[in-house]
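Q: I'm writing a short explainer about TonB-dependent receptor plug domain-containing protein for a general audience and would like to include a description of its predicted shape. Could you first generate the structure from this sequence?
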Amino acid sequence: MNIPPIDGSPASLRLLTPLWPVLVAVLFAPAAEAEEASSGSGPESTQLEDIDVRPQASTPLSGDDTGAGGYSFDREYLERFGGLDGSLDGVLRMVPGLQFGEEARSADSASDLRPESISISGGRYYQNQFLLDGMSISNQLDPAADNSSAINDVPGHEQSQFIDSSLLGEVRVFDANVPAAYGGFTGGVVEMETRRAGPEPEASLSYSTTRSDWVDYRVYTEDWDGGGRPPEAPDTPTYRRDRVALSYAAPVGEASGVVLGLNRAMSREPVVSLGETRTQRQLNHNAMAKLTTPVGMDGLLDVSATYAPFRSERLTKDARESAYTITGGGYGLSATLDYIGDRLDHEWELGANYSENSRSAPKDFFNWANTRSRDWGRRADVGKSREGGFGDLDKYQASVTGQWRADTGKHWVGPVGLRHRFGAKLSHRRYRFRREETLYIYQDAVVNSAVQCRGNDYDCVQEEQYFSGRNVYQADDVSVALNKGALFGEATFSYKRLTTTLGLRYSYDDFLQNHNLAYRSRATLDLFGDRGTVLRAGLNRYYGAALLTYKLREARKPYYRQYRGTEQNVVGEWQRDAGQGSYRYVFDGLNTPYSDERMLGLEQDLFGGRFRLQLVERRNRDEFARTTTPTRPDGYRYYLMSNKGSSRYRGISVGWYAELGSTLVNLHASYSKTETSNADYEDPVDDTSPSDHVYYDGKRIRYGKLDVLRKDFARPWVANLALTQPIGERLTASLSTRYRGRYTNIVSTGETRRGEQVDNGSGGTTYEQLEVYEQTTRPATFISDLKVTYEQPIVGSHTVTLQAQIKNLFNQRTHTVAEGQSGVEMGRYYWLSARYGF
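A: Of course. Here's the predicted structure. Afterward I'll give you a sentence or two in plain language.
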């Protein structure tokens, strides 16, 4: 019998309809019925659940006997492999199928306090789910925005809070076979838990630092064909970066505990603007308080509060009075109650989060011509005398979330072991965009030595120059809300050596208004009955999160253009240009992006550790992409969000994880191929707009046809070796080596070429400027990092710890600069740290 695939179509839903009673009964069967079944006569009524203690329990493999694809890193791993900058990069590199972007080793990344972006199992970097103490800290404001000087937007990041690794007690990463309790992603899940207090008081104060003087830079200049002036070599970055971490943990009373943490990270980067040296800064603070206390005899309550503001002080290069500040991050409060009941184990979670992406900047931007009174551009050898900023802009997101989970534990119905996990989740989110004052961007300066400004010295210089055009961004205040609910359940059946889990996750939100049903199924087969060799398999569907960026844009007022002239050299009034074609946004009637996954794997005890082989295929459909219309009769072009995006991922990975005495060893290698129709939700997927064409291989082609291979997060071959070894009683060395294979890609050269005549949106025509792309090869990289820790006891339990981390130990090329292009690469560089603790 041929069974059609379940793809969300009406036919598939009709196929499922007669199965609803069976599925609901299996997945959400009451625990009481299960226990009544297990209380019958026979050996099953007295059979105890096996407790298997094996070496792999101390490795990052999750140890889940249902085949869930998780990796768990405890505090020991975080301390040994976490960076002295407070990042988790060294830990996350131990997960096969997880890739960092091409800019992760770039020269600019050294001074950037934000976490590196990651792709899990081929998913887009902004379609992962990040959780902190059970609450989502994923950013849905505009995670793909990266232009810090955008007029109508503020750069975002896929994480709304940047949490220092010293505050964390455990990190779990799910890359495949993700349980039904997790949703809102088509990539993977990164779940972070803050630390709990131990049985003894402990405290630490640490300081770590790096600077550009400790970096071995390589400078490359683009190829010169001998014509014109030879290209100038780029300047090497100058920066300093510091981090201070303070923590205290202690038991309270007989069974409670409290943890307090405070971190401050700062980077300073001098830049030359208009011939003067100015300093750009980034600041990231973390404050955390957590209380753990028993509730009665069977409950445990965790209450945690985090505050993680981010601040970036920048300026527009070669523009006067242009300093601006970007504010991000936010705060969160969560409470988790674990309760062991007679028939059910419960977990209740309640939390609230607030974060922002805001800009504080001078109001209005002026592109003055270089004249007698506006001459700072000429003195700095710049074509114009620019001044001002893009004004204040605020973007906020706030959420309240409640979740309940229940677990029956394993019980027996005859020879079959049965376990149910089920629960529900509700959340309310609000998003807001606000510009308090109308912003003007002045352009098209006209030099006129006879112009009369009529007393207006704001955008006109008497007998010198005036502006004939400006863009107007109106004051605006827009908010949208999102309510989301989910029901999920899993039933795990164990019979002899076979364990099968069938699960469903239903979700709905009132923004996309789609009823999403995701199946989650996985199985393991213990070949020899001793858990030494286990086959794993899974078929799963994951639905992504609703992206509200375009909904906010749709509700915003579009900018428009004004013009003016002179009459007898007297400047006139501003008039609205009704014929020009600015943009509006439309977001309506879309499906929820989803990913269908097939997974097959093997786990094997090997040489005192645990070996894992895994094959994963994902087909991602209905992904968000952008369609652009020609100018319509109302004078606007429209950006339409569509579901025309798609991608496919195929990967195979092998990994070996071992804890051999005091030595931790992690070794993995993977091969993958990722195909995609568009890089992110801003990329066009059709040719409805001239701007969607580029110049490649001697001809004008549609951008979407450049190449189906993913441009970033898609090295085919990746391998990683991480090991840490104590040397004597006081010295520990940790080595991490990562290989990224060679691959060919198509990149922008930064040049333009004249294309065809097109409509300019104002009733006339103009020649389009096509961005030039070319094929380039990124060679393989082989980068090693070494961290050495020396611990010196002082008195009692008091110690001083000295650490040195050598990045790019063997001073290898990172190849972040393409062949023939100008740029700077980082070779070997250092971090140093000192810590006092007890």
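A: For your explainer, you could say: Confidence is low (pLDDT under 50) at residues 1-57, 686-691.
Q: Perfect, that's easy to follow.
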